[in-house]
Amino acid sequence: MIVCITEKPSVAKDIASILGANDRHNGYYEGNGYQVTWTFGHLCTLKEPHDYTNLWKAWSLGALPMIPPRFGIKLIDDEGIKRQFNVIETLIKTATHVINCGDAGQEGELIQRWVMQKAKCDKPVQRLWISSLTDESIREGFKSLKPQADFDSLYYAGLSRAIGDWILGMNATRLYTLKYSQNRNVLSIGRVQTPTLALIVNRQREIDNFVPEDYWEIKTLYRNTTFNSTKGRYKSEEEANEVIERIKDSLLTIKSVSTKKGKEAPPRLFDLTSLQVECNKKYAFSAEETLKYIQSLYEKKVTTYPRVDTTFLSDDIYPKVPGILEKLTPYMNFVKPILEGGKIPKSKKVFDNSKVTDHHAIIPTNVEPQRVPLTREEKLVYDLVARRFIAAFYPDCEFASTTVLADINNTEFKATGRQILKNGWRELYIKDKNTEEKTDEDANDFMPEFTEGESGPHEPSLLKKQTQPPKYYTEGTLLRAMETAGKLVEDDELRDAMKENGIGRPSTRAAIIETLFKRHYIRKVKKNLQATQAGISLIDTINEELLKSAKLTGLWENKLRKIERNEYAAADFINELKEMVNKIVIDVLKDNSHNSIPVDDDKDNKKKPKK
What we know:
Elements: E1 2-6, H1 9-19, E2 23-25, E3 28-31, E4 34-38, E5 44-46, H2 49-52, E6 73-75, H3 79-93, E7 97-101, H4 106-118, E8 125-127, H5 135-143, E9 146-147, H6 152-180, H7 193-208, E10 214-222, E11 225-229, H8 237-247, E12 252-264, H9 272-283, H10 287-299, H11 321-326, H12 332-339, H13 376-391, E13 397-408, E14 411-422, E15 455-456, E16 459-466, H14 475-483, H15 492-498, H16 506-518, E17 522-525, E18 528-531, H17 533-541, H18 545-548, H19 550-564, H20 570-590
Parallel strand pairs: 1-4, 1-7, 7-8
Antiparallel strand pairs: 2-3, 3-4, 5-6, 8-9, 10-11, 10-16, 11-14, 12-13, 12-15, 13-14, 17-18
């Protein structure tokens, strides 16, 4: 009997149906030589400190650092989980071999491996690796099962991440709680959550310390077109008024008119982070909500695997594009021009094998969306994915940018304007104001034709403005900051290069942000993320840059990715973290500042250490 282990009951049901395992039993399906069972996500977890020794049961500075000689796993203490694990364990004992059908990613690999280890699986194991849950994908996946050993490095990366988080989180949390907590409430420290909190605190400090400065701008209206002084900002009102006096009775003369034509390529396909950013921007969805909606769409078979960090497709997807487009019936008025236009374009900006590792970008599947019951929120997210996919095969948007230079009594002014010549991919977003955002706030929406040498009266005006502080992070901009280790990056190619050093993984960043909320380190004011006093005090108290630097955490993340590619040893990563924790413990114990950090006493901070 072949035993298949999936990550969710719903996936087990789909796979069982395709394999012909139609007899339902308690905790599994059976038939046609297969038994299909499931986990509920994590059934196992790393052991807690007290599982290793009673000396670590009580919270004590003298017991730190806690470094087990060998890490172990245990079942999560839940009756439902124990029952399901017993089912899996029993099935494995009588199996001829096992197929790991977990989610095709680092976390999915870790979940399944731990369960099989706990069940003492000694049978041959194969891996089902698919990017969508459509019947077609599942059938193709079972025709090309891979040896589980092919994914050992993926497992070692996931294991290293879990052990690294345990070493740093368990030790630093106890260390800072015992040393600095004002009310003996837990001060949560994490390898990713603490540098993420530091990003928010540092941005808030920049805003709080910002001192606005007045400046003045001179504009003038000529033929219903706004011209701006090329000098830009005037630091004093007196200087600006002198210019106004000099030009107000003089004629404006056009000196030059230049028009350049340009093209704007369709936006990149979505990875998880860019989808979360877009959903936060358009619909104010939190990162966690977006992940929930796109995960549901994946499980309902209408979109592909969501926990991805690439915006490209592999070449093998290209032949499937017409079939996917034909099923996008709600968008047929946009799809028809692509299907009727001959050969579908294949751009390197969309298809690039070198930019795809385990999974490709998030796209629709060949399952018609109207055949599946979707919530309002799921429909909104699906619409973003579908339009982005269709737009990838549309022509570039063509535009003309016009720059007009003028002179008024030896003072230069400039007017700019942009005109769309051919909508191209923007046809899909004509009613969407978010795609029409101006890159230049001074640009004119419409400009008449100007000729060199023409002149006439104008209407000058003086505008008083103030320099503006940096903006608070929203969940969308924070996700981008986590992706680039805190650096502001607009260019897509540069952002791709920096993903290797981002903090956290696309699939875990939403949970990190939620943890900061639950710990009362941050709060949301409208869409803005602000640090609480507890969050600020915690970051101020941590002197070790290793704990709060997004850059340094990004370097660790880079090493985890290298472990996944078999380019770095998992043991070296763990040993580095052990050395770092030893140093942090020594440094904190030496601190005689007597700092204390207040944390709200609430249900999320009930657990109090025993001193």
